[in-house]
Amino acid sequence: xxxxxxxxxxxxxxxxxxxxxxxxxxxxxxxxxxxxxxxxxxxxxxxxxxxxxxxxxxxxxxxxxxxxxxxxxxxxxxxxxxxxxxxxxxxxxxxxxxxxxxxxxxxxxxxxxxxxxxxxxxxxxxxxxxxxxxxxxxxxxxxxxxxxxxxxxxxxxxxxxxxxxxxxxxxxxxxxxxxxxxxxxxxxxxxxxxxxxxxxxxxxxxxxxxxxxxxxxxxxxxxxxxxxxxxxxxxxxxxxxxxxxxxxxxxxxxxxxxxxxxxxxxxxxxxxxxxxxxxxxxxxxxxxxxxxxxxxxxxxxxxxxxxxxxxx
Length: 312
What we know:
Layout (H helix, E strand, L loop, with lengths): L17 H4 L2 H12 L10 H11 L6 H12 L8 H18 L9 E2 L2 E2 L1 H4 L2 H20 L7 H15 L4 H12 L7 H26 L4 H28 L2 H4 L5 H5 L4 H5 L1 H17 L9 H12 L3
């Protein structure tokens, strides 16, 4: 199955939904790769492995690693070749979810339809499981199986560290926490900058790592970067919409947390309809950046459609 192209749907065809848009073949590749990862902790720390696997293998759409595999197809490479990078991306994402759910952060008891890691185990184990998943991501990237050229592996390690650290996801999370303490409402520009770090940085790595692996020419790298920039913002706007309109069963997490915490979001500033229109515009803009790839990037174009119709 592949993401269906919006423009190609015939009149009278069933409406696009998240279910009929998603590339299940790529999702299956990701799930198999994650299940095959070697954790190898000592017997005395087996509880740590249990917590790591509990969170990593809890399901979900795996949007970020699937984007990496879709990029492989855009570059004319077999998706299997990108699986180590895709796995590293999901390891980082899962670690971030574990830590985000902690009482000191977003304090959420539900993740992917199951008790959050700190509720299933305890806070200390959850923190350590997140730490271990983050470390494993870089271990995977550094292995020779990721790419035969050590310089390429080093570049990937460096790029993922930037996307995940103070200049990316972690920095964005800190800005988010600080924003909760501010009395004044954040501007749309400030929220955009925050989300480019918190959400956009890892999505950007997911889309551009393939260009590093394939040593793609600069125009293709630039196109993927621009695509990821707009896709990441669209993704976050839809996240904000789902926090208002979604339900726990579909989301697999507790909705309404942003409003409860008094957070400024795209929805709180723009309103529901303007936010929805902005997400659609950004998704279309993202797809337009892929012109240098021609039809080879159809799966990435279809990903932009998925982002705006997803319900979780």
